[in-house]
Amino acid sequence: MCSIRADIASEQGNAVPAGRRPVAGADALGISQRTMERYVKDQIRRPRADLAQRLQDAVRQRWQPRIRAQARKQAATSTGLVVDTRARFGFTAAPGTTDDARIRHLTIALPPQYAARLFDAQDAGASERQLRDIAAEGLGDMYFRDGGRRAHGLDVEFTDVEHVEFNL
């Protein structure tokens, strides 16, 4: 309820005198302007069950895109992503090394540059294969090549994906 009050307060205009400000969203919620004002002033503390659900949906619809955008920006610039996957990993490496593909379950933190590339590709309408290739490159760099400390020139293949989950 607190966030709906903040949401409504942010949309109220200052052009109308204080006692007669229109409250945004009352019509959309199917309630009177006066009932909405009572919620804002904390005169009504517990809405009916159906109205409570509509209020939650309205807040979620308005605030969720902002929160997602902030989380994506943070992941792309500072925190990165955590990838949990179970898939077949194979690789092409120098002669004399074992390159047989096998199923592995990995939970790896990808640095921000890979998160940014994944988000940019997704926004540009990249195919699932293209996104998987970016993820494979990141997983290969962080897991197989250990951030560039070993296995230089190793090309990782990421196939037969059983599941993949990205967490911020």
Task: Report on this structure.
The chain has helices at 2-11, 26-29, 33-40, 49-79, 112-123, 128-144; strands at 81-92, 102-110, 155-167. It is of the alpha+beta class. Helix 5 (112-123) runs antiparallel to helix 6 (128-144). The longest helix has 31 residues, at 49-79. It is elongated. The two termini are 26 Å apart. Mean pLDDT is 79; it is low at 11-17.
Structure keywords:
elongated, three-stranded antiparallel beta sheet, 168 residues, single chain, 6 helices
What is the 3D shape? elongated
- Written as H for each helix and E for each strand, in order along the chain, the element string is HHHHEEHHE
Beta-strand residue fraction: 15-25%
- Tell me the number of helical segments per DSSP (H or I, 4 or more residues long): 6
Total strands: 3
Q: What strand order characterises the main sheet? A: 2-1-3
Question: What is the average per-residue confidence, as pLDDT, rounded to a whole number?
Answer: 79
Gyration radius, in Å? 25 Å
Q: Please give the largest β-sheet.
A: 3 strands, antiparallel
Low-confidence stretches: 11-17
